[in-house]
Design goal:
about 270 residues; alpha+beta; CRO Repressor; 4-stranded antiparallel sheet; about 55% helix
Length: about 270
């Protein structure tokens, strides 16, 4: 017999007063309630952990897009997946497999649609839509703004955020399928670059993180083509006797090592 059952039998078989019986009965009920609540909480915690691991895997398989870069069908699938994970997580009466099966089916649907979009321009135009020009040669296209229900003030706000306060300075403003605004300025408002000036420039190298919090990343060190002895020698030239004193070190795009010591930026 369980502990609450033995306690209840003791309460009602004892010879003490009625108050003791009432208190013991209340303790028995409280223990049973706490046992049920603890069991429910533990079950919810396990379900949440399982669904969390599953969602991390699913999001990883769906790709590296951010929320603002999702296509419409990807955003819809993401929202539905979130709903499917919440219901079995909070309602223990619903089998966990119901949510898992639904999430896996949506993952398969997302991968299938992505492959169709990747290999068919017609399907891409149907599912994702096509980019729309909102500004052409410094002129607003009112028909496109009305058709897409784009507020003019919102458009101007986005243009100012991209440092284009004047509509007349813009050659093209394009509303992309994922809702972002691409701006191509006119040639006479773009600062000249090295190609325009006819200057020879050195192409940047790939930046590589070498040390983080005193730990040397050996694979990145090999990627940067630097030997450990060379790294230590470079550190000693900067009067750094121990690499564990380095908070962050990076091979820059100019091919130099940028050193950041612990606490040097603290006030």
């Amino acid at each position: 017999m369980s502990e609450p059952g033995r306690c209840a039998r003791f309460c009602f078989s004892g010879s003490s007063g009625s108050w003791e019986l009432i208190i013991c009965a209340m303790e028995t009920i409280l223990i049973e309630i706490l046992a049920r609540e603890c069991s429910t909480i533990l079950l919810i915690a396990v379900r949440a952990l399982v669904l969390y691991v599953l969602l991390v895997i699913v999001m990883r398989l769906m790709g590296k897009r951010q929320i603002g870069q999702l296509q419409p069908f990807e955003l819809v699938i993401t929202i539905i997946i979130a709903e499917l994970s919440v219901v079995p997580m909070s309602n223990t009466g619903i089998p966990l497999t119901n949510g898992i099966i639904g999430i896996l089916v949506l993952l398969a649907a997302e991968i299938f649609i992505s492959l169709l979009v990747l290999n068919s321009e017609r399907v891409r135009a149907l599912v994702c839509g096509t980019p729309t020009i909102l500004i052409n040669n410094g002129r607003l296209i009112a028909e496109a703004l009305q058709r897409l229900r784009v507020n003019l003030h919102d458009l101007l706000e986005q243009l100012r955020g991209k440092e284009y306060p004047n509509v007349s300075d813009i050659a093209y403003a394009i509303l992309e399928n994922n809702g972002t605004l691409s701006v191509i300025p006119k040639a006479d408002v773009v600062p000249p670059n090295a190609r325009d000036l006819g200057r020879a420039v050195t192409q940047p190298l790939f930046p590589v993180t070498l040390i983080v919090d005193g730990n040397v990343n050996l694979s990145n060190l090999k990627l940067a083509g630097i030997a450990m002895d060379t790294l230590i020698a470079q550190a000693k030239l900067r009067q750094i006797p121990d690499l564990r004193d380095v908070f962050f070190a990076q091979m820059t795009t100019q091919g130099q090592i940028d050193w950041h010591l612990r606490g040097e930026g603290d006030g």
